[in-house]
């Protein structure tokens, strides 16, 4: 009988490989969960994003819709010391989907307005502050004629002053 007891003890002492795999998987899952929880809890959220500082809008807002004025604007400037011109390409930004169709219909009016504004400018007007003022002037002249929304920003895709 003593041989039977020894054999039983040996069988009990054997480690089952399936049990080892289950324990290891449990430890792995718990460790991953704890790591992910730690990362989520310790993420820092910035007080304000750079976009919010510049535009006053948060990142969670819907990005603006755009309307590209297909043809470049090439206009003589009013400089008297030399013949100068500007070549410019613009994109209009807005948030109302209703404005898409209206802007397409008003393309000629918008082109005429942009050309009229540009013809009054000199080469010295195209500094960084000057271009921001120019964008505001474009919007001030175009927005009153829009019925289905307003232009919220204007992007200069290309600008060349010579």
Q: Architecture of the largest domain, according to CATH?
A: 2-Layer Sandwich
Task: Please report which band the strand proportion falls in: under 5%, 5-15%, 15-25%, 25-35%, 35-45% or over 45%.
Answer: 15-25%
Count the E strands: 4
Structural class, by secondary structure, is alpha+beta
Number of domains: 2
Q: What is the assigned CATH homologous superfamily of the largest domain?
A: Band 7 domain
Q: Rounded to an integer, what's the Rg over CA atoms?
A: 34 Å
> What's the helix count?
6
In the CATH scheme, the class of the largest domain would be Alpha Beta
User: Span between N and C termini?
Assistant: 108 Å
- Describe the sheet with the most strands: 4 strands, antiparallel
Shape: rod-shaped
Order of helices and strands: HHHEEEHHHE
Give the averaged pLDDT, no decimals.
Answer: 81
Q: Percent of residues in helical segments?
A: 40-55%
CATH topology of the largest domain: Tetrahydropterin Synthase, Chain A
- Unreliable stretches, pLDDT < 50, 5 or more residues? none
Structure summarized in a few sentences:
The protein has six helices and four strands. Helix 5 (107-119) crosses helix 6.
Characterise this structure.
With 162 residues, the chain is an alpha+beta fold. It folds into 2 domains: 40 residues; 103 residues, 2-Layer Sandwich (Tetrahydropterin Synthase, Chain A). Helices cover 48% and strands 18% of the residues. It has 6 helices and 4 strands. Strands 1, 2, 3 and 4 form a 4-stranded antiparallel sheet that branches. A hairpin with an 8-residue loop joins strand 2 and strand 3. Helix 5 crosses helix 6. The radius of gyration is 34 Å and the shape is rod-shaped. The protein starts with a helix and ends with a strand.
